[in-house]
Amino acid sequence: GFDRNNEVNKNNLENKNIKFSSEEIDLEDINIFIITVPTPVDSFNQPDFKYLIEATNLISKFLNNNSFVIYESTVYPGATEEVCLPIILKSTDLILNKDFFLGYSPERVNPGDKEKTIKDIIKITSGSCEYASNFVDQLYSSVVSAGTFKVNSIKVAEAAKLIENIQRDVNIALINELSKIFHKLNIDTNEVLEASSTKWNFHKYKPGLVGGHCIGIDPFYMSYLCQKFDHNPVIITSGRKINDSMAKDAANRFFNLLNKNFQSSSFRVLIIGITFKENCNDIRNSKVFDLINTLKDLGCLVDVTDQIVDSKIIFEKKNLSLIKNPSKNLYDGIILAVPHKIYVNRGINYLKSFGKKDHIFFDLRGVFKKNQSDLRL
Asked: Fewest Cβ atoms closer than 10 Å to its Cβ: which of 99, 190, 202, 280?
């Protein structure tokens, strides 16, 4: 009943009709299996289905007549039936849509968001036949008060989830590229966005680092699928390249400004926030690590602080020691990389207090007003 993500109230986990287990024996007499394991990419940005395959192999031992296997993990269109289904058919004597049924309902939870929880977000549902589709839809309807949206095939549901994140990735990439252009023109990107937003149909995306286990990963699943059809997804792959370059670009902008204003052989820098997004303790695919590494390569002495993450996990996974209480008046440069509320609510003066009398403050996400920071993306 311990939620290390701090998303669920402890009282809501205790004394409830729910059992958490990692024992296989507890899968006996179960007839609905919902698989929600991660679907990352490997070092070559190819889909890594190892968790999906392991989970499917596991539950296949316990399937019986009238079992339902529902997947929520993000995959490319066709993967549920091409990767997962054959495992079940090979491991059992069961017949699809007669003895057991497949469903797919993509996960849509926004990490760190305590207001829009699973019950507040419309759930896409699908099944391997009409009976399965109706069953899956009714199952989620009993939980999701926002409602469900039933589609005609598992492939459509898989594709819908994929393009939700691809669309965000591409749109942010456009703004990130414009940010690079405006920087060369000495124009503040955030001011341009505020002006453009006065038009009713303008979509206001802000420049920034794009990481995490969804937006920074899902485009690779689509580009992998495109290889099978000899199609080059130009916009998707270009957007990914732009977003992957932003940490290095931000580090260089910051370093150049330090060099312009101060003379030093080694600048001391404080980075505030290390997670992939604000108010969330998830570090998966966080581009802040790229920011850190680039600054170190440029010769900077880098300290990192983040009060909402477990410092032990950071050290174990990244061999990086976080600074719990940064010293005041110590740093040549400060980067607010992830604007957690816990920092933003303390105000700009608190954040700047870690810097020397003369220092550079980089408001990477443009949280504060232009005249309060020395640099914004």
From this structure: 202
Find how far residue 273's CA is from the centre of its chain: 15
Identify any residues that bridge with 70 across adjacent strands, giving them in sequence order.
Answer: 34, 103
User: What one-character DSSP code corresponds to residue 121?
Assistant: S
Kind of pairing between the strands at 123-125 and 100-104 = unpaired
Q: Over the stretch 154-196, which tens digit does the pLDDT of each residue have?
A: 999 999 999 999 999 999 999 999 999 999 999 999 999 999 9
CB 191 within 8 A of CB 104: no
Query: To which H or E segment does residue 318 belong?
Result: helix 311-318
Count of all residues that appear for the chain in the document: 377
Rounded Cα gap, residues 223 and 306, in angstroms? 34
Residues with catalytic function: 214
pLDDT digits (tens, 9 = 90+) for 231-270: 999 999 999 999 999 999 999 999 999 999 998 888 999 9
Token pair listed for 361: 């403050």
* pLDDT number for residue 10: 77
Alpha-carbon torsion (337, 338, 339, 340), positive or negative = negative
Single-letter residue type at 225: L
- Asked if residue 102 lies in contact with residue 132, where contact means CB atoms within 8 angstroms, the answer is yes
Q: Which residue has the tokens 């309060």?
A: 372
Q: How far is CA 112 from CA 7, 10, 272, 308, in A?
A: 6, 15, 18, 11
The strand pair at 123-125 and 268-272 is best described as unpaired
Cβ(128)–Cβ(154) below 8 Å = yes
Residue with tokens 């059809």: 229
CA–chain centroid gap for 171, Å, is 15
DSSP string for 275-313: SSSTT----TT-THHHHHHHHHHTT-EEEEE-TTS-HHH
CB–CB of 13/6 below 8 Å?
no
Give the pairing of strands 375-376 and 355-363: parallel
Q: Is the pLDDT of residue 352 over 70?
A: yes
Give the Cα separation of 164 and 89 in Å (integer).
31
- Contact present, 75 and 225 (Cβ < 8 Å): no
The residues that bridge with 69 in the sheet, in sequence order, are: 33, 102
Answer yes or no: is pLDDT of 59 > 90: yes
